Amino acid sequence: MSGPAMRATLLTFQPMIDSETTRLIIRYHGIEAQERDHLPVCAAIRTLLHGGNGHIPLLYGDGFALTSPYPIAQHFDAALPPDRRLIPDRQPLAGQVEADWQTYNGTMGTDVALFAYHHLLPDRALMQPIFGAPVLWIERALLPISYPLLRALITLGLKLSAERAAAAEAAIRTTLDATDRRIADGRNYLVGDRLTLSDIALCAAFAPLLLPRGYGALMPPIEAMPLPLRALMDELRTRPTAAFIQRLYDCGFDGT
Fold first, then answer.
1. Is the residue at 4 inside a domain?
2. Residue 134 counted as domain residue
3. Are residue 72 and residue 101 in the same domain, yes or no?
4. 2 within some domain
5. Which phi and psi (to 5°) does residue 196 adopt?
6. Whole-angstrom Cα distance, residue 120 to residue 151?
7. What's the predicted TM-score (pTM) here?
8. For the chain, how many structural domains are there in total?
9. Cα separation of 172 and 110, whole Å?
10. Which of 151, 190, 226, 250 is most exposed by smallest CB count within 10 Å?
11. The dihedral of CA 116, 252, 97, 188: what is its sign?
12. Which residues span the domain enclosing 98?
């Protein structure tokens, strides 16, 4: 957006889909945020020191502390004219954006995380450096001890299992099929004629499986991925939605 950039700090666990969603929201709003990445338990504790409630991502700055991407979008949208807001306030656009948020950030975000973590977490040699790279040195130094706990927390939180991973893979394909059909008319955005939260939710949800240029989270290179995950990624990257998402990343999610 025009004018001087607002400065803030973004407290995250880097791989979270909600973390990428927040990165894209604040990019749109022209907020210069210093990202501070931590492992989940450390991040949760640190939120309490900065006006948060134990949940991440937390964006905080002079006079505000905002948890989770949707409230962050609402907060900064309030300063914009209606025709520039990520969350439209007029129907039918508002209803469609809300439905897309539930689909992409909600159901699909969970499915992507479930499928990816089911295949990634058992490969400790692959994932321990990924989790450790952006965090404080003390968290990184303790990862050889804490990795089993981190894996257990993610496994419990997502209820990881082979059966649920297979169902998630099928759901990912179903959602991508529907999105391919939706954009087949050549539209530039999912809803209306400008960027909305629908586009951001779509991009952030699928980014871990597409690894688009400009993606803000560190992930293993596709050639190092476990074979079931790599096979799905190779397939999805050929789809029209993948090109749609890459174009949005290339455009920078800039609200100007």
1. no
2. yes
3. no
4. no
5. -135, 180
6. 10
7. 0.94
8. 2
9. 10
10. 250
11. negative
12. 93-251
Q: What is the pLDDT along the chain (256 residues), one digit of tens a residue?
A: 444 567 899 999 999 999 999 999 999 999 999 999 999 999 999 999 999 999 999 999 988 999 999 999 999 999 999 999 999 999 999 999 999 999 999 999 999 999 999 999 999 999 999 999 999 999 999 999 999 999 999 999 999 999 999 999 999 999 999 999 999 999 999 999 999 999 999 999 999 999 999 999 999 999 999 999 999 999 999 999 999 999 999 999 986 5
- Indicate the residue type of 89: D
Cβ contact 52:58 at 8 Å: yes
Q: Among 37, 58, 84, which residue terminates a domain?
A: 84
Block residue for tokens 């939706």: 182
